[in-house]
Amino acid sequence: EGFGPSVDYRIAALKTLLGKAGPLDEITSETSKAIWRDIRDIRPFADGSGKPVWRVSMTPAQGHQMVLTLRMQAAVSAFYDWQGGLVWLRMEEGDPEAALLRGLLRKHGGGHATLVRAAPAHRAALPVFEPQAPALAALSQRLKQEFDPKNILNPGRMA
Question: Which pTM does this prediction carry?
Answer without folding.
Answer: 0.75
